[in-house]
Amino acid sequence: MINGPLLVFIIDAAIQIATWAISAPLQTERFYDLSGSLTYMACFLTALLNRPDGEPLASLNPRQIIAVAFSLVWCSRLGFFLFRRVLREGKDHRFDEIKKAPFRLLFAFVAQIAWVWLTGLGVYVVATNPASRQPALNALDIVGIVVWVFGFAVEAISDYQKNTFKNANPTKFITSGLWAYSRHPNYFGEVTLWYGMFMLCINGFVDGWNWVSILSPLFVTYLLYFGSGVRLLEQSSDKRYGHLPEYQAYKARTSIFVLWPPKKSIANPAEHDEEAAVAANAQ
Question: Which residues are within 8 A (CB) of 60 and not within 5 positions of it... i.e. 6 or more apart?
Fold first, then answer.
């Protein structure tokens, strides 16, 4: 009988391939982000509810329940946010050419299979491990919970701030709120919450191979900082706003990733203009 992370992977792959089979003939990307969120939900719930050890659900360890509950909240929010954005904008520009070629579109869905499985790996491992072999919650679990909540809050708040700003200022770049402390606070929050999740899962590892779950936060870090996240958005923003002095000043004073106080030595042209106006009026 197939159980554990392997069963989760099979479900992951099956949902993504099925979604590709629907999307390819329609030449649409609208189901891509939504299918990712639904696949996460199916995988998390399968890992928790399909007990390979024969233990009743009533005996689940609180760690398992918390890890899956947090993960469900995360994927629900992210999936809804991304799906609503595609509906509002009408399309996802990343797929302009890909969706016209079925096998190139298939590669995107295969990449999403890897994203779903590697990102949630720690949760899948702990959720499918025997509850009876896991210790009670302790200090490390609490630290992991706090780190996860912090990261989730940063991601959700920064997404909300940018979405609100862009609705009112579609051609401008945001420099307020959490975006005053990081040029990519949503990605920083995402990476942070998965390190918090890994810390929560550590005490739920019951075999040596379970430590392969470190791939989860490392993969998310690589994907968002070194891969298609920060790097591509920096290139896009430089192309769109690079000629503006205020954008150059924003880049110079603002951390690229980690939330950090802006450099005070770097002037904001808009702030200087406002200060000059106030000084002139005072005279």
Answer: 48, 131
